[in-house]
């Protein structure tokens, strides 16, 4: 079997392993309805949330003081049933079987640990970095540099679905791989080990 080029894989969660944008869109629209506001087109809300929660609120709920709290409550209920992208668990399993290590960096607080547990994949991760650890948000690379130093990483791949994931990885001197909802995660196993991706 060909050896993997990368030993360490640092994952984003939402939009990368977890198909959460659909759940978040539903929760966002439900919250707008609860405030008796008109609900925009589904795809427009989805696109705004892919940029950031702050972007979606700025567009559709900037004048509702309690919106963020109510939205997060609704989203947390929906996230009780996390949905992984096709191939996510199989990819994690295959990399571990070949001697690779997994890490995760999320903007979410410790709630992310519950999500990983319910999704049945928490056991694959050496460490999960959450917002509770106080690192600056992406694309600042400090969380990646912390992992790089702590685990003496020399051949890490940062995987995410947004440009901020890629920029953080590149700034930290790591290889990067951009995925989207239509991209099969199993393709990561077939990456050319002789070239940097990103």
Automatic annotation (TrEMBL):
One of its GO terms (molecular function) is hydrolase activity. It holds the Pfam family HAD_2. The keyword Hydrolase applies. Transmembrane segments: none annotated. Keywords: Hydrolase. NCBIfam families: HAD-SF-IA-v1. This is HAD superfamily hydrolase (TIGR01549 family). It comes from Streptococcus rupicaprae.
């Amino acid at each position: 079997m060909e050896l993997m080029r990368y030993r360490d894989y640092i994952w984003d969660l939402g939009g990368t392993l977890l198909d959460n944008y659909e759940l978040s869109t539903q929760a966002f629209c439900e919250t707008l309805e609860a405030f008796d506001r008109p609900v925009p087109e589904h795809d427009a809300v989805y696109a705004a949330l892919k940029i950031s929660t702050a972007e979606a609120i700025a567009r559709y709920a900037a004048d509702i003081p309690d919106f963020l709290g109510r939205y997060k409550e609704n989203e947390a209920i929906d996230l009780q049933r996390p949905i992984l992208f096709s191939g996510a668990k199989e990819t994690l399993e295959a990399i571990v079987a070949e001697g690779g290590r997994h890490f995760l960096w999320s903007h979410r607080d410790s709630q992310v640990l519950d999500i990983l547990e319910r999704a049945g994949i928490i056991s694959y991760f050496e460490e999960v970095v959450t917002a509770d650890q106080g690192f600056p948000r992406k694309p600042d690379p400090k969380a990646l540099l912390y992992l790089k130093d702590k685990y003496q990483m020399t051949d890490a791949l940062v995987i995410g679905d947004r440009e901020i994931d890629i920029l953080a990885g590149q700034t930290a001197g790591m290889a990067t791989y951009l995925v989207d909802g239509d991209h099969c995660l199993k393709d990561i196993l077939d990456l050319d080990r002789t070239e940097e991706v990103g």
